[in-house]
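Suppose you are handed a protein chain with no further information: no name, no annotation, nothing but its sequence. What can you learn? This example shows the usual starting point.
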Amino acid sequence: SEPTKDDIISAVHPIQDQSPQPLKTPTPRSHIPPRVPAALISPSLSSNFLRLKSPQPQPLKIQKAEDVDPSEFEETVAQAMFDLENTNDELKSDVKDLFINSATQIDISGGRKAVVIHVPYRLRKAYRKIHVRLVRELEKKFSGKDVILIATRKILRPPKKGSAAKRPRSRTLTSVHEN
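A reasonable first move is to predict its three-dimensional structure. Written in structure tokens, the prediction is:
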């Protein structure tokens, strides 16, 4: 007979009696649950069991507001930047801490297309250092498309009366729309 889910869970986390015991210093590796024998995991349960494990977080190259999911094209651009970080030794250290806000594809004259990548304003200087190399590599990945990087600035509201906080001039409505 096939083992049930409860058999697997009890093998991983054995039930301990609830009676109070004196505190003892933990021995090394005592907090790690025992391994589940391979014979207990059937093919039908293994996929459910493996889903219980937390997935390894992948480095994010795109950061959007919490309630907004990235589009398929934005994920493609983020994956291209992630690939550059892993394959290009020249850009590896520079691209490591960079990410994008959004990306769109637009039509330009002559039937060509352009990839517009919006980056955070605070990372603008880091992007400027590697702009030429990064655009060259991204244009190779998106063959036949021009790549444009744009720093996105956020408009901050005026500070409240009596507040000591000042907003930067570059975050005013007028300044954001002029530039």
